[in-house]
Write a structure and sequence with these properties.
Pfam families: BPD_transp_2. Keywords: Cell membrane, Membrane, Transmembrane, Transmembrane helix. The mean pLDDT is 87. The protein has a domain at 7-239. The protein is built from 14 helices and two strands. The chain has a two-stranded antiparallel ribbon. The two termini are 39 Å apart. Helices cover 76% and strands 1% of the residues. It is an all-alpha fold. α2 (28-53) runs parallel beside α7 and α11 packs parallel to α14.
Length: 336
């Protein structure tokens, strides 16, 4: 039974449920909420890579998400580029800007890095808000087209968009998993645990932190690009700092520094928020204390808490086996 409850099997079951869900429940509201949650999950995986595995808390993540979204919006609406080309260019633009910012930001450490990226995120928000000639400012950018057809496959219905976003989410999870299980991922974890020790053993920490930061901006830009195609309207609010804190909440609830934490945390918080919509502004009075309790008792989130519980259970089982093996010779001597 314990062999069946592995992270890989859990991911496969979740994927199977996600594929079957639209075929079983034909509810556009549910499809909309799930699609939106999948988009946020893609961005949260980027935040988890730089914050959870490399140990650098970036508070400009919503800004990079907005850069990806507005890049697609401007390129398709004002320049007239095909969506798929705009999607690729949006990811490249976000990654390039992330590299330029990372070269400066990563010269700072710990809370100074967080403060610097917080300022960067706010500057991105001001640029989007004030640069009306390109972003349309507070009026917002409207009329963003849906993804262009790929042969006979079109993306004009909620179900087709759902499957498109699900495809990119699965691709992102696959890439993140490959990165984390590689030598590069182990290097990120070493930097997170002790940057000074990593430097002592010869790891070029600045280069690895920059690559991790750039990859995180790439995933944020990809999420923003899909958001633009899904919502088809953009406003400056998507780049505001509260969006970054929302992503951070999803990550903390699910489990920072875990592979499945961003997915579980985002889906859980998004659905709980939807079910508490009837409380309007008072829903945070319920959700806030629940979040605080979760962080106190499960500082590594739901997935991290489950992993700790599983590790303790295996340790107790191993200790019991060792004790039994030590007691067997004594029992044999007593019988003699």
């Amino acid at each position: 039974m314990s062999k069946l409850l592995t992270q890989k099997n859990g991911m496969l079951v979740a994927l199977l449920v996600a594929v079957i869900f639209p075929l079983v429940i034909d509810n556009q509201y549910y499809l909309h909420v799930f699609s939106l949650a999948f988009i946020w999950t893609i961005a949260v995986y980027g935040l988890n890579l730089i914050g959870g595995f490399t140990g650098q808390l970036s508070l400009a993540h919503a800004g990079f998400f907005a850069i990806g979204a507005y890049s697609v919006g401007v390129l398709t609406v004002k320049v007239g580029i095909n969506f798929w080309l705009a999607l690729v260019l949006a990811c490249l633009i976000t990654t390039f800007i992330g590299m330029l910012i990372g070269l400066i930001a990563l010269r700072t450490k710990e809370h100074f890095f967080a403060i610097y990226t917080l300022c960067v995120g706010y500057i991105i928000y001001l640029i989007i808000y004030k640069w009306e000639a390109v972003t349309e400012g507070v009026r917002g950018l409207i009329g963003i087209p849906t993804p262009a057809p790929i042969g006979p496959i079109t993306f004009e219905t909620p179900r087709s968009l759902y499957y498109l976003i699900l495809f990119f989410l699965v691709l992102v999870i696959f890439l993140i998993r490959r990165i984390i299980n590689s030598l590069t991922g182990r290097t990120y974890i070493a930097i997170r645990n002790s940057e000074e020790l990593a430097q002592t053993i010869g790891i070029p920490t600045m280069r690895h932190k920059l690559v991790s930061f750039v990859l995180s901006t790439f995933f944020a830009g990809l999420g923003g690009a899909l958001y633009a195609a899904f919502i088809r309207f953009l406003g400056p609010d998507i780049s505001y700092i509260n969006v970054t804190f929302d992503m951070l909440t999803y990550l903390l609830v699910g489990g920072i520094g875990t592979l499945s934490g961003p997915l579980i945390g985002t889906l859980l918080v998004v659905w709980v928020s939807q079910y508490l919509q009837f409380l309007q502004d008072y829903r945070m009075l319920i959700f806030g204390p629940l979040l605080v309790i979760l962080i106190i008792f499960y500082p590594r989130g739901i997935v991290g808490g489950f992993q700790m519980w599983s590790a303790k259970r295996k340790l107790k089982r191993a200790q019991k086996i060792i004790i039994d093996q030590q007691m067997k010779p004594l029992a044999v001597e007593e019988e003699k």
